[in-house]
Amino acid sequence: MDKIKVENLSCFYGGQCVLESLDINVVKNEILTIIGPANSGKTTFLRTLNRMSDLNTSYSRKGTVYLDDENIFNMNMEKLRKRVGMLFAMPIPLPMTIYENIVYAPKRLGLVSKKNEMDAVVEQALKDASLWDEVKDRLNSSGMKLSGGQQQRLCIARILAINPEVILFDEPCSGLDPISTAKVEESMIELKEKYTIVLVTNNVKQASRVGDRTAFFLMGKLVEIDKTGTMFVSPKQKQTEDYITGRFG
Amino acid sequence: MFKLNPKLSQKISYSILFCATILAIIPVAVIIFIIIKNGASAITWEFLTSMPKNGMRGGGILPAIIGTLSIVMCAIAVTLPIGVCAAIYLNEYAKDNLLTRIIKLAIVNLAGVPSVVYGLFGLGIFVMFLKLGVSIIAGALTLAIMELPVIITTARGALNSVPYSFREASLSLGVSRWQTIRHVVLPNALPGILTGAILSIARISGETAPIMFTAAAFYVPHLPTSAFDQVMALPYHLYIISTQIPGMPKNIIFGTALVLLMMVLSMSLIAIIARIYFRKRRKW
Amino acid sequence: MKRKIIDTIIEKIIFFCGILAIVFVTLIFGFLLKEGFAFFKEYGVISFIAGKLWYPTSDPAQFGILSMIVGSLLVTAGACVIAVPIGIMAALYISEIAPKGVRDVLKSFIELMAAVPSVVIGFVGMVTLVPLVRTIFDLPTGLTAFSGSIMLAFMAMPTIVTISEDAIRSVPWSYKEGALALGATKWQTIRRIVLKAAMPGIIAAVMLGIGRVVGETMAVMMITGNAAHIPSSIFEPVRTMTATIAAEMGETVRGGMHYRALFAIGLVLFIITFIVNFIADLFLGKSKK
User: Fold this and answer.
1) What is the ipTM metric for this complex?
2) Which of C18, C109, C266 sits opposite B117 (nearest CB)?
3) What topology is assigned to C55-288 in CATH?
4) Architecture in CATH of B59-281
C-alpha cells in the first residue's frame, strides 16, 4: 500500500529547475533510500515532502504529493509536519534540557499536559530511540551537552514523541562516527515496524545496509528505482552502476 | 632613503598605537574624574530630595530627577514593545522583498538622524499637531520615536543571533511559527534585547535636545502630578544652570552633572556586565 | 482551540506594530519635508542654502544658512582630523596588539564613553577647555570652532574605535597567516594586509563618526560661541545648524516664517545625516562580504 504518492513533481529555486517531473511512491512501513551525488535534488525532494522547503522564498513547485490520498499542498502545514517528521543532517537539539527537548513539541501541539503523561512520553520516546539507558539519570541536563550521536538520537526521540506516520532522514549520519552511525541505522530498522521511512544519504553502503528499496537521483531526475538487493546486484542503468561502484559522485 | 630595521619599526609603531589608545580614552576619563572630584561634595541626601531654592542657586534637584525618570520610563514603555514587535515582524515574518529591504535600510539609517531633528519633529507633531502641549507625554513620545530605530536594530541583532536551525527544528515538528518564536527564539534572544533596552534607557536619560521644546521647563515649583505636566529634566537643568544663570555656585552645577553622569553610566555598566555574563552562559 | 485564537491575536499585534514602526519612519520624513518645502516655496532653496545672512527677526527677515553650513563643516572637519587617526590607531591597538584581558576592559570602557551625555561634555568643555584655549592662543574668547572640534572628537571616538575594531577583527585569520608565513613581521602584516582588508569597515566607522558629529547639538551650542558669520579661521566662534535649531526654537512664533526656517534646517540636517549613514551602510555591507 502506498503511504506517499508523488505525481509529476517539479521543483525550482529562483526559476532554476532542481527536480524534474518526478513520479515516485513510498510504501507503508518500508525504508526507501535515496542516493545520488550532490545537487541531484534529493534533499529538495525530501524537504518538499513535509513542506520545509516552503520556508525558502525563492522555492516554487508544480505537481502533487499525496499522503494517504490527501494532497499535502492543500493540508495545514503544521498538521502535515506533525504527521511527517524530519531528522536533519546535523543534530539540532534545542537549547533546553533533554526532558524539555522531548516534551517541547507534544506540549505545543496540545498532545500532553499532565506531568505523568509527559514523563511517560519522554521515557517511551527515549527507549524507542535507544537512548534511555544512556541519559535516564540526567534528563535535566542540557541536550546540547550530549555527544554527536546521542544528540542525533535525541532528535529522533523528539520526533517519535509526536507520533508521526512518516519520518524523513536527511543524511542523518554525515557528521557521525561509525559506531554512532551503526546505532542510528539500528534504530531506523527498528522504527520501520511502526513508521514509514524515507532516507536520503550520500553513503551508498548505508543505502545497501538499511534500504528496502533504493532510488537513484541524478541532476534532478529519477534515474532508477528498485529493490535494494536487485539494484546493487544488477542495476539497469549504466549511470546507476557507475555511481554505486564509485566511478563518480 | 634609509630603511628602518623591521623589528625596530614594529616596536616604534606599537608604541605609537599604544599612545593613540591612551589619547583616545584619557580625555573622557579626565572628564569623568573632574566631575566626580568637583561634584562629590555637593551630593547630599538633601540635594537629591529637595526642591531648588533661591532661583536654583541653592536647594536640591529632586524635580529634575523625578522629571527625567518619568519621561524616560514613559518613553521606554512605549518604544520597547513596539520596537521588539516590529523587529519580530521584520525578522521573522516579513517576506524578503525589495520593500522589506528598503524599510530595514531606512530604520538603520534613522538611528543616525540627529536628536535635535527628532526634537523638531516632536514639537511639530506631539506638542502642536496633537495638542499635547509641552508635557511629559510629548517628550516621552519624542524620545520613544527617536529610540525606536535603535531598539529595532538591537532587537533584530538579538533575534538574528539565535541560530536559524533552531527555528527549522521547531517548525519541522509541526509547531506553529508564533509558538516557535515564543518558546524557542524569544527566550534565547531576551538577554540581548534587554541589555539593548537598558543601554537605550541610559542614552535617552542623557538626551537634551529632543526634550528641550517638548517636555522640559526652566523651573517648575512642584512635582509632576499628571502626564500632561511640564517638568524639569536633569540634562536640560544642567544646560540651564551652566549657561543661563549668572552667579550659579559651581559645586551645584558639578553636583547636577555628577548625578546625571552616574545615572547614565551605572545603567550602561549594568548592561555591559549583563551582556558579558549572558555571553558566557550562552548554550550554543 | 483557545490557544489558536490567542496565537492569531498576538500575530496580528506584531504585524500592527511592524506597520506602526514603518508609519513613524515615513511620518518623520514626510513631516520635515512638508514643513521644509512650505518654507522653500516662500523663500527659495538657493537663497536659503547660499545666503550669507541670518537675521530671522529683522524686517525683511534674512534666512541664509551658509554661515551655519560652513560652521558645521568646520567643526566636523576639525573633529575628524583629531578623531580619525587616533581612533583608527586605537582600534588597531585594541584588536591586534592588546592582550585579551586588556582588550575586553578597553572595549567596555569605550562603550561607556559613548554613554556620557553631550550636555555633560559641553559643560566640562566650557569650564576647562574654553579658558585654556583662550589663554594658550591668546584669543578674545575661547568659545571657538577649535574648542568645539576637540570636544566633538571625544564624542566621535567611541563610534570610530568600536566599528573599526569590529572591521579589523573580522579580517580572516588566513590572510594574516599567509603574510606571517612569508616572514613579514606582525606590524608589516597589520599595516599591509589587515588595514587594507578592513578598509571598507573603517570607512564606514569614519562616516558614522561624522554623522554623530554633524548631528551633535548640546556640546557645540555650549562651546562654539554661536556667532552666525562665516569664520576666517578655526579660532573664531562659529554657529552650527544644530545649535541654531536648539537655541532659537524656544523663541520663535509657532507657525511663523522663522519657525519654518528652523524646520528647513532640520530637513537639511536630516538629508545630510541620512546620506552619510547610507554611505556607511554601503561600506558596512561591503566589509561583511
Assistant:
1) 0.91
2) C266
3) MetI-like fold (1.10.3720)
4) Orthogonal Bundle (1.10)
